Amino acid sequence: xxxxxxxxxNPKSNSFCKSLADQYLAAATGRCxxxxxxxxxxxxxxxxxxxxxxxxPLEPDLVDFQEKVKWAEHIVIISPVWWGGLPxxxxxxxxxxFLPGFAFKYINDKxxxxxxxxxxxxxxxxxxxxxxFWYKYVKGNPIYKELKRCILSFSGIKNTSATYFGPIITSxxxxxEKWLNQVSKIAKKLK
Length: 191
Fold this sequence. Notes:
By secondary structure, the protein is of the alpha/beta class.
């Protein structure tokens, strides 16, 4: 069975991202080994206060997150777009956990590091309050570029797809049900 980690990157206790994550979990249960993380449930200092200059001890929730990332073969990131990019708490989670020695390692002062999370895949499910075409083609799709190119690829995780839902703010109950059903279909494709 494939080992799948679902990350709800929206820190709100009740959000459409949480509904999407729970829907994905329900549809994938029994098809794979699956774990879910709701970032709002995690307790940690989100700032990497001294960068890589000083070791900042990881809180228990961050240690658990790293263990789940190492365990996973496929990572599903469900994130809203806030101010064009990632929510601060999710970015803080990446800053604090995708560290040298965990996600990458510089070797012999080479500028291109060794990718330590190779062999994993990911998929992105993105929600936004602007029309998808506007965000992707006028704004330049910054969340995708940051996640795929700057975080996942840098660490060796190959992104396989990105699905966008929006605008959420003006969506109807019928539209949201359609999107939830679409997430179920995505999850049921897991092998």
